[in-house]
Amino acid sequence: MGAMNTRIALISGAGTGLGRATAIAFAAEGAEVVLLGRRRDKLEETAALVQDRTGKTALVLKTDVTEESQVTDAIRTTLKRYDRIDVLLNNAAILESGSVAELSADDWQKQIDTNLTAPFLLTKAVLPAMRKQKYGRIINITSSLSRNGAGGYAAYSAAKAGLESLTRSIADEEHEHGILVNLYNPGTLRTEMHATGKDPAIVTPDIVRLASLSFGGPTGTIHSYG
């Protein structure tokens, strides 16, 4: 029996990179995984890898996590199939360069929507089920840019800073319901957003640990690789 045996875990941005690696890691620890993302072909690739490596069948839900109606539908479908949601990994992200002087309002909003509003929508949607079962583990992927900023990455940096504040607020609100909400900074990973960096699989043990924290574990805190 793995650390996540019988748990139901939702993963946004599950089609590639850290989302894909975490889906495999969660399933290997016994979880049933639900894969959310915009690109069905990539989600199906992840599901095939989950099946091949763990023998588990992942639930694929093509979802634009910036659209509230699609998020609501995904949560409804998940609950209809499994009757509970134990873990939410808010991993979906976009990183596009642009200084404040160069960014259009639309470009700014696109990054805010994916990197900050989507975690809010997904968290809001899973909270009723987690409160009912008096159990939930929510993990939000953050970045060092949330604190340091960087020229040319104003929107991404601001969104991640907002995500950290949002995480602490939710942790404070939901602790009494048995829901732990934490941040994880994996550092630079080799994904579609970065040509170089660590293999995402290297950091998944940390995420599994946060997803399987016992009652009374840390909440509202930042955890980092290494």
What would you note in describing this structure?
The chain is built from seven helices and seven strands. With 226 residues, the chain is an alpha/beta fold. It has one domain: NAD(P)-binding Rossmann-like Domain (Rossmann fold), CATH 3.40.50.720. It has a seven-stranded parallel beta sheet, sandwiched between helices. Strand 1 (8-12), helix 1 and strand 2 (32-37) form a beta-alpha-beta unit. The longest helix has 29 residues, at 105-133. It is globular. This is Short-chain dehydrogenase.
Notable characteristics:
alpha/beta; Rossmann fold; seven-stranded parallel beta sheet; 7 strands; 46% helix
Write the layout of secondary structure elements.
Layout: E1 8-12, H1 17-28, E2 32-37, H2 40-54, E3 59-62, H3 68-82, E4 87-90, H4 105-133, E5 136-141, H5 145-148, H6 154-174, E6 179-185, H7 204-211, E7 222-224
Helix pairs in contact: 1-2, 1-7, 3-4, 4-6
Strand element count: 7
Assess the beta-strand content as a share of residues. 15-25%
Q: How many domain regions? A: 1
Give the biggest sheet. Answer: 7 strands, parallel
Query: What is the N-to-C order of secondary-structure elements (H for helix, E for strand)?
Result: EHEHEHEHEHHEHE
What is the CATH H-level superfamily? Answer: NAD(P)-binding Rossmann-like Domain
Mean pLDDT: 94
What structural category characterises the helix and strand content? alpha/beta
CATH topology (level 3) name? Rossmann fold
**What is the subunit organization of this protein?**
single chain
- Please state the second-level CATH architecture: 3-Layer(aba) Sandwich
Question: What CATH first level would be assigned?
Answer: Alpha Beta
Protein name: Short-chain dehydrogenase
GO molecular function: oxidoreductase activity
Family: Belongs to the short-chain dehydrogenases/reductases (SDR) family.
GO biological process, one term: bile acid metabolic process
